[in-house]
Design brief:
Shape: globular
CATH topology of the largest domain: Alpha-Beta Plaits
Radius of gyration: 18 Å
Strand order of the largest sheet: 4-1-3-2-9
CATH class of the largest domain: Alpha Beta
Pfam families: Cyclase_polyket
CATH architecture of the largest domain: 2-Layer Sandwich
Strand content: 25-35%
Protein name: Polyketide synthesis cyclase
Distance between the termini: 14 Å
Helix content: 25-40%
CATH superfamily of the largest domain: Dimeric alpha+beta barrel
Structural class: alpha+beta
Largest sheet: 5 strands, antiparallel
Organism: Amycolatopsis pretoriensis
Order of helices and strands: EHHEEHHEEEHHEEHHE
Number of domains: 2
């Protein structure tokens, strides 16, 4: 699976309209033509996070569909009325809403399918992009141990977009927030250590409303998967 994460800003009240818009889009043949296997959308404060999983990295023909099919153009125009770019001054099109991936780990032999699909849990913080190499190295060290297997993580991906950091973990159940809370409760030294090492690189997205680590987790409001 190849993931692309699109980020924008959205009024929370717009979530039903955005869900309806994508439900119609995903019911068409366009996701199949573009190679899309799965879509999950989340809200976090003023953010709209659209996680799109492709069966593999899109080829030129699939990218052309996404760029030129009139239905895609119409869909994007309607979406633009509901979701705004994070940086409107530098936005030229949907590609400018794509976050930059900088780390990927997944369990050996793992394959996300409709029959055994995972649920993505997203932790959101702020991070300067210059910290990407060090943050990636910290997670590479952790993921070289048995810790992600013990935690139940099937895949971990890290992205940044205009100073916002997205830590996406795929779990077999829709209880990622509880799994993360349990990791804090168990106080595995490796988990405590990486949290300590990440601290200098991270700040919470909204200090005025932050109370605990649970406040760093985005809320999923839409989920679609292609038929097996």
């Amino acid at each position: 699976m190849h993931s692309v994460v699109f980020v924008g800003t959205m009024d929370a009240d717009a979530a039903p309209a955005v869900s309806d818009l994508f439900a119609r889009f995903d019911a068409s043949d366009l996701p199949h033509l573009a190679g899309v296997r799965k879509r999950q959308m989340y809200t976090y404060h003023d953010l709209h996070i659209n996680v799109v999983d492709f069966g593999r990295e899109p080829d030129d023909a699939q990218i052309e569909v996404l760029k030129t099919d009139p239905r895609v153009v119409t869909h994007q125009q309607k979406l633009n009325a509901l979701v705004a770019p994070l940086r409107p001054d530098s936005w030229r099109g949907a590609a400018d809403s794509a976050a930059t991936p900088f780390y990927l780990w997944q369990q050996r032999g793992w394959k996300d399918t409709a029959a055994g699909s995972t649920h993505s849990t997203i932790v959101v913080n702020r991070m300067d992009q210059s910290a990407r190499p060090e943050v990636a190295a910290l997670f590479a060290g952790l993921d070289a141990t048995d810790f992600p297997y013990r935690m139940g993580t099937h895949r971990r991906q890290l992205f940044t977009h205009h100073g916002v950091y997205f830590h996406i973990q795929d779990f077999p159940e829709q209880n990622g927030k509880a799994v993360i809370a349990e990791a804090w409760k168990e106080k595995d030294p490796r988990f405590i250590e990486i949290c300590r090492e990440l601290d200098p690189h991270m700040t919470v997205y909204d200090p005025g409303t932050w109370r605990s680590t649970a406040d760093q987790i985005a809320t999923r409001f839409y989920h679609w998967e292609a038929a097996a």
